[in-house]
Amino acid sequence: MASTETSSEAKAKPDSHDLAGLEAGLDALDAVQSHRTPVSEVLLKKVLPPVVAVVLVVALWQALVWAKVTDEGSLPAPSAVWDSVSKLWMAGTLLEVVWTSVSRGLLGFLLALAIGTPLGLLVARVKFVRAAIGPILSGLQSLPSVAWVPPAVIWLGLNNQMMYAVILLGAVPSIANGLVSGVDQVPPLFLRAGRTMGATGLKGTWHIVMPAALPGYVAGLKQGWAFSWRSLMAAEIIASSPDLGLGLGQLLENGRNNADMPGVFLAILLILLVGIAIDLLLFSPLERAVLRGRGLLVKN
Amino acid sequence: MTNTLTKDQATGRTTTAGYAARIEHVSKSFAGPAGRQLVLDDITLDVAPGEFVTLLGASGCGKSTLLNLVAGLDKPSVGSIATPGGRPALMFQEHALFPWLTAGKNIELALRLRGVAKTERRTEAERLLDLVRLGGAYRKRVHELSGGMRQRVALARALAQDSQLLLMDEPFAALDAITRDVLHDELTRIWRETQLSVLFVTHNVREAVRLAERVVLLSSRPGRIAREWTVGIEQPRRIEDAAVAELSVEITEELRGEIRRHGQH
């Protein structure tokens, strides 16, 4: 009944002071409260479930080893894999191997970013370019990047350039396509509002189109990273050479050549862990920050 | 013309033209499924400096189209539109605030695009937020604001363009009645303080009479100016005032007549 009282009060004396009070009341009643989740809740709901899952998988793995479902050469015990980790760690090469691949992957990703972003903008904003290469660009996403390794080796030889070429061919289409779909989803109202404010041409692209397309762009980056990492591993496994230094892909290939199953398991786990870690540490927080800032992360 | 001149002096604005917007013999047609469709037919209308004009009409009368033409978002098929005060500011039914910016930064973007120096933007944005009585909302994100607050920030952003002409396209249509009523008071106050010219589109007769000095009724398909009323009721008015109600009844009758004509063929 409070609303009837305030409105009849406002009717009695429609002066500006009363209007201010009325408005303050409305604002207080309507304002949306947003709050962040406490840390304990995050731990319970977000951290505990994956930890339980990992523990269960390792337990199952150990159980299979104990049950002797297959010989130890095919399925090493978790402890054997742990031994190869500590061996590599003691030798001082573990971090070096991981860093060789991660630095290649990240540098390749940054290059893909520098090429994919302007390319995506061109495809999204210029009709002729979109008609010309839009379909090819989305088609390229479904081409496994391992297919690029043989031609890249022939063109560039067994070197780092070849690795970067494969990463670019894998990641650029994802990044460009993410940006294109981000731009396509920009509400036309934002563009109209921008135009009435004088944001046209490059100003409009910089102040309105790019920030409005950011959620789609970040989703494209996430996928672009996944493609970069996958392409790099394919390149490292196929094209291993002593000159290239020891990366995770070569580690896996060496394990196969030496019939060292714990080493193979170790390499696969490391590849998986690095992929997950980069996503969790870099891209997921970025995506969440973008969405939260826009009020798009709604809690049920 | 004398009327226009005195108003011009009263606002103290330096305009060489005696109008904030001049719409001359404007027609607009679009390509439709049945050939070209005439949406606006020979509209001629002046908005005087400092004047508040509402464009009233049923759906399909082309009132939003006309506003887009005045805003420069589209070009008339025939005729000309002049806005000597520069590019008009435009407010929409949806707030159209950018969700990646805070309320304050939304206003600062308009200032920046207008060419205001970086050092002055913050102060000016705070002043405009104070003007719409949202002094504490500078850091608020769009999704943290209520519908009425969003429209007030949108109004502040429109004012940041420092245009002499404010175009409003049913800006309060999506709000609840209590909030809309408060925003009417707010808009009247700000219009009188800033001495802006306002061209306000609505389909709500009472709203048109509550706000305007002049109500222009458009017929539908194609939109033509059917009739005009000068509203002599003193501001601040209230939507439930007897004089507002009386004129609204008269205008509604006329509007209904316009709508009925379409059922006859």
Provide keyphrases for this structure.
heterodimer; A: 300 residues; mainly alpha; MetI-like fold; 2 domains; 13 helices; disordered N terminus; B: 265 residues; alpha/beta; Rossmann fold; six-stranded mixed beta sheet; three-stranded antiparallel beta sheet; 9 strands; 23% strand; globular
Q: Could you characterize what this model shows?
A:
The complex is a heterodimer of chains A (300) and B (265). The longest helix of chain A has 33 residues, at 261-293. Chain A has 2 domains: 1-31, no CATH class; 77-293, Orthogonal Bundle (MetI-like fold). Chain A has helices at 2-12, 16-30, 39-66, 78-90, 94-125, 127-140, 149-156, 160-184, 188-196, 201-212, 214-238, 248-257, 261-293. In chain A, 31% of the residues are buried. In chain A, 78% of the residues lie in helices and 0% in strands. Chain A is mostly helical and 300 residues long. Chain A has 13 helices and no strands. Chain B has 265 residues and is α/β, with parallel strands linked by helices. Chain B has one domain: 3-Layer(aba) Sandwich (Rossmann fold), CATH 3.40.50. Helices cover 40% and strands 23% of the residues of chain B. Chain B has 8 helices and 9 strands. Chain B has a 6-stranded mixed β-sheet with strand order 5-6-7-3-8-9, sandwiched between helices. In chain B, strands 2-1-4 form a 3-stranded antiparallel β-sheet, covered by helices on one side. Chain B is globular. The model of chain B is unreliable at 1-15 (pLDDT under 50). The interface between A and B is large, with 38 and 42 residues. Chain B: Pfam families: ABC_tran. Chain B: Residues 21-247 form the ABC transporter domain. Chain B: Keywords: ATP-binding, Nucleotide-binding, Transport. Chain B: It comes from Streptomyces albipurpureus. Chain B: This is ABC transporter ATP-binding protein. Chain A: This is ABC transporter permease.
